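Let us work through a complete example step by step.
Step 1: write down the sequence.
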Amino acid sequence: MTATMTDAPPPAAPKADDAAQPSGRSLAKILMIVGGALLLVAVVRVITGANQLTSEGQVSAALGLAVPIGLAGLAGLWSERAGVVNIGLEGMMILGTFGAGWIGWQSSPWLGLLCGIGFGVLGGLVHAVATVTFGVDHIVSGVAINLLALGATQYLAKLFFAGGTAAEAGGNPKQSPPVNSLGDVTVPGLSDALHSVEQHHWFLISDIAGILGGIVTDVSVVTILAVLLFVGSWWVLWRTSFGLRLRSCGENPVAAESLGVNVYQYKYAAVAISGGLAGLGGAFLALVTSHTYLEGQTGGRGYIGLAAMIFGNWRPGGLAMGAGLFGYSDALQLRNGGVTVHALLLLLVVLLAALAGWKLYRKAFWQGGLSAVLAAAVLVWYLFTDEVPSDFVGATPYVVTLLVLSLSAQRLRMPKADGMRYRKGQGK
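Step 2: predict the structure and record it as tokens.
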């Protein structure tokens, strides 16, 4: 992505998008990666004794932390696949938190959820008007939305929560009164059985039981909805004519227009959906995570969602993996502190050593040597300490995100017309 906007590319052969390209890694490769990662974590758990690495509580917390990030990333995916860079995701999430908290405490959490989505759509439409209709730089528009959303919600919170019935119910200028829960789902019988297997701490078997237990125990209905949205987004964008046309707008809008696609209409639809998904992520924070609107509760998750989207190469599957990775590392440092994060150092040693071996095999001696030195340094850190200092624990998810993005940056391919200015009629 770049803050410097250029005009859309001229018409080309009907290579409107990447539809003819492979849709990413095959299912077999994905399963191999997931299986290898699980095996590695199980080995680290046995060696270090850090049973929290794959516990039911750890997985459940990671899932709750990953959902808002994943929804923000999915929002960015919809927008950028249509060629509109959406830096304003953070602001749209903020609008979603306020809308959910404002309506949720007055009526029902379900209406609050819808209102959070609606507020996000409103933010998305403002971004679409600025970027699509008036051709404003996408980065400038997104930053403006973030600032406007923050200021507007702070003003409205003081207006609606600081006095009267709201104040009597527990509201104040920085938060709404409490909102009722949306409810959780637990698979009866299976949850208890998996928990029992996990407690035996068997190699790999208990790890799988802990992970599955976290997925089927006390799962929010919004989490289930988020999973369905990921699957639905993949199907719509890569298996329908609507998705093909929308992605063509992000690859070459001039060629798409020459083939009869209403580019403005598809860009507006994509950015509105993007805003609604970001608003849903904000509503999740207000209704599921804290059961109240809190000023600043998004905590930069809109930006982290963009990072997860980039890590996922603008595809739902990779995006879900990126969001899950951040949620997992964030849950580790929140639940278990320096002792469990210390166990991750051994995992990092293995990954860096593997990377060094691969780079040296590919004759990338400089990168391979650097990876080997880092692996040795981290191994020394692990062997001569018992836990990670608290000052570093809080930075764990951000360090993990930076490392993953740096390692995956060479294989990324963004939509060709992402962020470019397009004016109607260029394809005629």
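Step 3: interpret the result. The CA atoms of residues 251 and 415 lie 5 Å apart.
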